[in-house]
């Protein structure tokens, strides 16, 4: 029934808060609501973060719990998480949504014409 | 002896800042050329103040004493009166002769241009308080939004051309924006638009090479109204220009500007179709969320 679990090394997508839109790896679990989290390759400092703002992705890294940032970074880069993430449909949908919001009036016209084709 | 220090005197009388630069050789050449013409004008260096200071702002001698000390009675200068004798001061005209109708009337009358007042109020008009910074409309500061630059595509929001997308040309003297369709694309002629009733899009046409005729000013676009209702109420409606006629000059100006603008528009793909379309809101479209 559940396919994605909170585990050490799970990559999560932050949905709201100051780091909204970034990926982090779960390094350790603090208590029922918070995890120690680190995103060396996505610009998030090692910090506690509530589970509520995290959305689990399909990616898991292999490192021991409470591993330091260097280890997390090595694992992250070895798995090439950034590229894999950009290739997922999830990330592509986010990007499309952003592009649509930035469309200027002229772009909207061009899209309208293109759709009519 | 006065001529022996020409290096200092001749240039210093003209430019006191250049006195002691120690350039004697070029300085000697100057007075040699100047001394020929200026031998008579031996203007000396400026004297120090002849009014010793007692305290700050207070001098030892009074105004009249200083007049005597500075020998101003000897130094009265007037501007040279060149060609005034020839021109003879022109007085403004005092009277004018006007023609008068009716026979046996003599045909003309001599009328004063500036007449004596026909009424003097019993109390004088009170002196108005000083006001500051109240300028007439013609001197107001005109501002223009930073998003509106020459060549920007604007969306008109009011007027008979509401919703149409239009090219901005320049801002006129009163602050209104000069705008053109171009006419061939969306039937908007050279026209004025108000900055406040316009949405500026981020689409720009390169208009840097387009020359806009200088005579396109506010006076050119201002509505003309006849104001001579000499008849009584019944016959006024005929004389008023209800039907607006497009003058030949407007047509030629339109052609001149549009030919240049159209050339630039053709360079951008799909821009012509964009300008032909109109802007509208529909369900789920919120202006505050749109990026223009």
Automatic annotation (TrEMBL), chain A:
Q: Which Pfam families match?
A: Ribosomal_L14e
Recorded superkingdom? Eukaryota
Q: Which GO terms describe its biological process?
A: ribosomal large subunit biogenesis; translation
Keyword Lipid metabolism set for record: no
| Keywords, comma-separated and alphabetical | Ribonucleoprotein, Ribosomal protein
Could you tell me one molecular function GO term of this UniProt entry?
A: structural constituent of ribosome
InterPro entries according to UniProt: Rib_uL2_dom2, Ribosomal_eL14, Ribosomal_eL14_dom, Translation_prot_SH3-like_sf
Q: Which GO terms describe its cellular component?
A: cytosolic large ribosomal subunit
Q: Does the keyword Acetylation apply?
A: no
Stretches assigned to the Large ribosomal subunit protein eL14 domain: 46-116
The family classification in the record reads: Belongs to the eukaryotic ribosomal protein eL14 family.
Q: What is this protein called?
A: Large ribosomal subunit protein eL14
- Which organism was this protein described from? Pterocles gutturalis (yellow-throated sandgrouse)
UniProtKB/TrEMBL annotation, chain B:
Q: Where is this region: Disordered?
A: 1-57, 83-108
GO BP terms in the entry: cytoplasmic translation; ribosomal large subunit assembly
- What function is annotated for this protein? Component of the large ribosomal subunit. The ribosome is a large ribonucleoprotein complex responsible for the synthesis of proteins in the cell.
List locations, semicolon-separated.
Cytoplasm, Cytosol; Endoplasmic reticulum
Does the keyword Ribonucleoprotein belong to this entry? yes
Residue ranges, compositional bias (Basic and acidic residues): 1-15
Instruction: List cellular component terms (GO).
Output: cytosolic large ribosomal subunit; endoplasmic reticulum
Q: Which organism is it from?
A: Pterocles gutturalis
Description of how the protein assembles with itself and partners: Component of the large ribosomal subunit. May bind IPO9 with low affinity.
Query: Keyword Chaperone, does the record have it?
Result: no
Domain called Large ribosomal subunit protein uL6 N-terminal: residue spans: 40-99
Domain of life here?
Eukaryota
Protein name listed in UniProt:
60S ribosomal protein L6
């Amino acid at each position: 029934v559940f396919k994605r679990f909170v585990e050490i090394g799970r990559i999560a997508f932050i949905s709201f808060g100051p780091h909204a839109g970034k990926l982090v790896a779960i390094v350790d679990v603090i208590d029922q609501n918070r995890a120690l989290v680190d995103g060396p390759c996505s610009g998030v400092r090692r910090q506690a973060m509530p589970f509520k703002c995290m959305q689990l992705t399909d990616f898991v890294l292999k490192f021991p719990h409470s591993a330091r940032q260097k280890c997390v970074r090595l694992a992250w880069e070895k798995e090439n998480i950034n590229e894999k993430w950009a290739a997922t449909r999830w990330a592509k949908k986010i990007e499309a949504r952003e592009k649509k919001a930035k469309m200027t009036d002229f772009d909207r016209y061009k899209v309208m014409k293109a759709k009519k084709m | 002896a006065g001529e022996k220090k020409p290096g200092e005197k001749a240039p210093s009388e003209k430019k006191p800042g250049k006195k002691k630069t120690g350039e004697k050789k070029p300085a000697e050449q100057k007075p040699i050329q100047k001394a020929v013409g200026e031998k008579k004008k031996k203007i000396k260096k400026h004297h120090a103040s002849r009014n010793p200071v007692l305290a700050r702002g207070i001098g030892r001698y009074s105004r009249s004493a200083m007049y005597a000390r500075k020998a101003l009675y000897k130094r009265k200068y007037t501007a040279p009166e060149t060609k005034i004798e020839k021109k003879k001061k022109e007085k403004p005209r005092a009277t004018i002769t006007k023609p008068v109708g009716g026979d046996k009337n003599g045909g003309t009358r001599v009328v004063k241009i500036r007449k004596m007042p026909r009424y003097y109020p019993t109390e004088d008009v009170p002196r108005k308080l000083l006001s500051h910074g109240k300028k007439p409309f013609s001197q107001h500061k005109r501002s223009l939004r930073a998003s509106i630059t020459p060549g920007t595509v604007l969306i008109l929001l009011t007027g008979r051309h509401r919703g149409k997308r239009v090219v901005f040309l320049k801002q006129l003297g009163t602050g209104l924006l000069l705008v053109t369709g171009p006419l061939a694309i969306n039937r908007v002629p050279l026209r004025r638009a108000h900055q406040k009733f316009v949405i500026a899009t981020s689409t720009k046409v390169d208009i840097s090479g387009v020359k806009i005729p200088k005579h396109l000013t506010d006076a050119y676009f201002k509505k003309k109204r006849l104001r001579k209702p000499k008849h009584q109420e019944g016959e006024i409606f005929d004389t008023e220009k209800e039907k607006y006629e497009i003058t030949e000059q407007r047509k030629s100006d339109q052609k001149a500007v549009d030919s240049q603008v159209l050339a630039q528009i053709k360079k951008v793909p799909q821009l012509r179709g964009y300008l032909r379309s109109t802007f509208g809101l529909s369900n789920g479209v919120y202006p505050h969320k749109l990026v223009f």
